[in-house]
């Protein structure tokens, strides 16, 4: 097993497995990852806030993290409310510039 923490491994996994988040202007950050309890908390922000399919993305993250990491048994995915883009709740996330709900939705 590597010396990387569970949080670091989950962050790396998010970059590799969920590039769609960044491609659509969203952000993600691993808030908690406890290998002893099996609990992981991921927060989505940017254009994920208020997105009509963010619940599908969250379901995919939950399912895939539990399948891909033996020690993960419980995943919580939080999405900031549509008024919270750019707030401190999404610092450190991936995806470059944070976008707002009023930006053009040309990703479909």
TrEMBL record:
Residues 19-75 form the NIF system FeS cluster assembly NifU C-terminal domain. Residues 78-88 have a biased composition (Polar residues). Residues 97-108 have a biased composition (Basic and acidic residues). InterPro entries: FSCA_dom_sf (IPR034904), NIF_FeS_clus_asmbl_NifU_C (IPR001075). Residues 78-108 are annotated as: Disordered. Pfam families: NifU. It comes from the Archaea. Gene3D superfamilies: Fe-S cluster assembly (FSCA) (3.30.300.130). This is NifU family protein.
């Amino acid at each position: 097993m590597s010396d990387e923490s569970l949080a670091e491994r989950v962050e790396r996994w998010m970059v590799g497995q969920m590039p769609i988040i960044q491609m659509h202007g969203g952000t993600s950050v691993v808030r908690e990852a406890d290998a002893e309890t099996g609990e992981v908390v991921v927060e989505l922000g940017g254009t994920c806030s208020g997105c009509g399919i963010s619940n599908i993305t969250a379901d995919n993250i939950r399912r895939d993290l539990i399948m891909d990491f033996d020690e993960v048994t419980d995943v919580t995915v939080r999405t900031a409310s549509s008024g919270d883009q750019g707030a401190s709740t999404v610092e450190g996330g991936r995806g470059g510039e944070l976008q707002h709900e009023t930006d053009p939705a040309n990703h479909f």
